[in-house]
Amino acid sequence: MDLLTSLVTLGSNILFYLVPFLFILTIVVFVHEYGHYKVGRWCGVDVTTFSIGFGKELFGWTDKHGTRWRFAAIPLGGYVKFAGDSNAASQPDADAVAKLSQEELSRTLPGATVGRRSAIVAAGPVANFIFAILVFAAIVMAFGRTTIAPRIDRVTPASAAAQAGLAPGDLIVSVDGVQMSSFDEVRRIITINAENTLRFVVLRNSVETAIDVTPALVERRHSLGVERVGVIGVTAANRPEDVRQVSYGPIEAISYGVRESWFIVTRTFDYLGKLLTGREKADQLSGVIHIAEVSGHVASTGGIVSLLTLAAVLSVSIGLMNLFPIPMLDGGHLVFYAFEALRGRPLSERVQEYAFKAGIAFVLMLTVFVTWNDITRIVTRAAVG
Question: Quick one: pLDDT at residue 349?
Fold first, then answer.
């Protein structure tokens, strides 16, 4: 099946992918931009536009504060434009700002103190993290969670576990000093530590024993592509006494939400670290096409709870990505503000302009690259049947 046929197949299912994808993306984008908006208002900065999407406005309204709330034709992101901004990326409009009175200037983003500008910019990613934590917490509070004790049922012959000396019946107490309360926790650590030696402490015949295990790197093919993960070759015990349903109160649920969100952050940095050192391939980077595929798959197999979980995962990812020190993103603004705080004055307009252009070029190149990755995945899946 060639590229054209694969794309036609994708197009025939466009509504199947598009509806859940836009549902998730709209929620995550709104949360991010509302963080900017709300803290901006708290800091006394006027907001001229709150946009979901880019391009031509489809519909909208203007509130009593003069903010235009709009839904635009290209629903792949959004922005909040503050008084004093020249564009959606919050570059300052120097000419317009120079004509303002001191009182008017104080209500613009460029006229706010460095601390307030930093708070406004950081509020978007922070809102994403808070949203994800609350979603994870709400799900486990509403439905609880089924956990399996970290007890080994079977060990695959010639696997990393077999070679290290793990045995059926071993109860995994800790991995690299981290206490294990479920088999899922063990699996997660193994997954992200391919080819890294881990110190397992297991309870065997009422005696704790330390065993070093090095997970093997394997490629797993599934309906949405290929992932490379660490495995050691063990399965969980399925005895009734090893399975339990855990209920969560508010504090425990929030703690769970923080752990889930932090896992996504650490997993992302682990992948990027391996990518930069040549231990991972860039083909795992994904764009909007793959996210749309995942959204459609999750919606068809898992329902609203799974969609909300995906929204939480995507929210953490977008919040984290926006904190990267790339001009045009929130992290780039924060770097500029840090320089301004240290120097006592902002970087020159020329330096900022060149930096923003470089940032835009980088983001565009990355977008092209991940889109190509997404298309390649579709074609590869079609080719192998």
Answer: 79
DSSP per residue, 8-50: HHHHHTHHHHHHHHHHHHHHHHHHHHHHHHHHHHHTT--EEEE
346 and 228 in one domain? Answer: no
- 353 belongs to the catalytic site: no
Tokens for 139?
A: 């799900």
Domain membership of residue 165 (yes or no) is yes
Are residues 152 and 190 part of one domain? yes
Strand, coil or helix: what is 219?
Answer: strand
Task: Give mean pLDDT, residues 169-187.
Answer: 92
Residue tagged active-site, from 33, 185, 260, 280? 33
Residues 226 and 162 in one domain: yes
Residue 158 Ramachandran class (φ > 0 left, ψ -120 to 50 alpha, else beta): left
Residue 149 CB-density burial (10 A; 0-12 exposed, 13-18 middle, 19+ buried): middle
- pTM given for the model: 0.85
**202: phi then psi, degrees, rounded to nearest 5:** -120, 150
Query: pLDDT tens-digit profile of 317-361?
Result: 999 999 999 888 899 999 999 998 998 888 887 888 888 888 888
Considering only CA atoms, which of 105, 139, 130 is closest in space to residue 31?
A: 130
pLDDT for residue 1: 46
64 vs 62: CA distance, rounded Å: 7
- Do residues 347 and 86 touch, judged by C-beta distance below 8 A? no
Lowest mean pLDDT among 22-26, 84-88, 128-132, 188-192: 84-88
Query: Domain range for residue 325?
Result: 3-44+112-142+312-383
Domain end, chosen from 215, 231, 246, is at: 246
C-alpha 250/C-alpha 284 separation (Å) is: 35
Distances in Å between the Cα of 17 and the Cα atoms of 24, 96, 296, 383 are 11, 43, 4, 21
Coil, strand or helix at 365: helix
Asked if 135 and 28 touch (Cβ cutoff 8 Å), the reply is: no
Number of domains in the chain: 2
